[in-house]
Amino acid sequence: MSARFELIDSEVRWRGRIISAGVERFRYVDGESVKRDKVWHPGAVGVIATDEHAVWLTRQPREAARLTDSLEIPAGKLDVEGESPLECARRELAEEVGLRAEVWDPVLDFHTSLGFCDERIWLFHATGLSPAPGGAMPDHDERIETVRWPLDRIDSAIGESTDSKTLIALLWLLTGRQGVRR
Amino acid sequence: MSARFELIDSEVRWRGRIISAGVERFRYVDGESVKRDKVWHPGAVGVIATDEHAVWLTRQPREAARLTDSLEIPAGKLDVEGESPLECARRELAEEVGLRAEVWDPVLDFHTSLGFCDERIWLFHATGLSPAPGGAMPDHDERIETVRWPLDRIDSAIGESTDSKTLIALLWLLTGRQGVRR
User: Which of A93, A101, B62, B101 could form a disulfide with A114 if both were Cys (CB 3.0 to 4.6 A apart)?
Assistant: First the structure.
């Protein structure tokens, strides 16, 4: 039974400000077809910004998940036309945390929920940190607080955060690795 | 600037088979209101099933993300009325991989994409494995292959998988921890 499939049709049923939702149909090489709920998302980046002693995290309300105080790595959506994940990561680190970095290493990228959604997140490790000119400038509808979290207490951040990209980032830091070969 | 908010209204604009999509509005204690795209999802479980030498993984097509061969931990949606995450995890391990487990330890739970979606995934560590009566019985529209992956090659599974729950599970195994305090 082959897992190869082709897209038969794709229908957006609702367009929001950031996402769209609808249905896609696929046909396998053996002829069977399946219908799947689908959410289209522009993708996002997350930044693991560390100095010798700490990782920079944020706290912010996440209304959709009913969290007043979500602990996360700095992050943002790929919502600027033509912007690469790396450019987006530089921009978000400056806007959310007020920092720039000399060194940017790709860590890994992943799908947040690949059963129904095409959202993909690119993680970068940012080092060589210094204050960005102008300081932090969050979007008007964001309420972001910055937290400099000690690296020797990453365990407690993993215990507190319930955000997938942040858990991947912090577990990756704990394993002490230099990047993932793909 | 407080991060506390209340829900003002919640409107489903499209209902799929598994998810719904629409818009929610919230008001902060300082009076400002925000409108957010929202996807409702029933939630899911993931199982980290290990014996002394290996972790049990699956390969399957993921049409929404255009993957023919996604490497993942056994998992499934909370789509049976009244079923707890642990009961769902037992059922999915039997259905997808044909195994049962003596010991079930909660590992951690997280939101896949908390900017717009309420999906939450509960991860369990399953040990004391033995064949389930009847063997694997995947749903009729699933094409799942089982892979017994050596624990000393977890690095290469992390390099291959692009699935958030699987990366969290495998990084957690690498850090060798016994559960996360919340």
Answer: B62
Contacts of A43 (CB under 8 A, 6+ apart): A77, A78, A85, A118, A119, A120, A121, A122
* Location of structure tokens 């991060």: B3
What pLDDT score does A178 carry? 52
- Cα distance from A86 to chain B (closest Cα, Å)? 18
Model confidence over B8-44: pLDDT tens digits? 999 999 999 999 999 999 999 999 999 999 999 999 9
Complex prediction ipTM: 0.94
Contact status of A14 with chain B (Cβ, < 8 Å): yes
Spatial neighbors of A103 by CB under 8 A, at least 6 apart, are A125, A126, A127, A128
HSE at residue A43, side-chain half, CA atoms within 13 A, is 19
| Residue range A52-102, pLDDT digits in tens | 999 999 999 999 999 999 999 999 999 899 999 999 999 999 999 999 999
d(CA A82, CA A1): 39
Neighbours of B106 (CB within 10 A): 15
Query: B1 is written with which tokens?
Result: 């600037």
> Class for domain A44-175, per CATH?
alpha beta
Indicate the residue of B18, B28, B168 with minimum beta-carbon distance to A171. Answer: B168
The two three-digit tokens of residue B76, written as one number? 């499934």
Flag whether pLDDT at B98 surpasses 90.
Answer: yes
DSSP, residue by residue, B10-56: EEEEEE-SS-EEEEEEEEETTS-EEEEEEEE---EEEEEEB-SSEEE
Domains in chain A: boundaries: 5-40, 44-175
For residues A20-57, one letter each, b for 16 or more C-beta atoms within 10 angstroms of the residue's C-beta and e for the rest, the string is bbbbbbbebeeeeebebbbbbbebbbbbbbbeeebbbb
- The answer to whether A18 contacts B28, with C-beta atoms less than 8 Å apart, is no
Matching residue, tokens 């931990």: B73
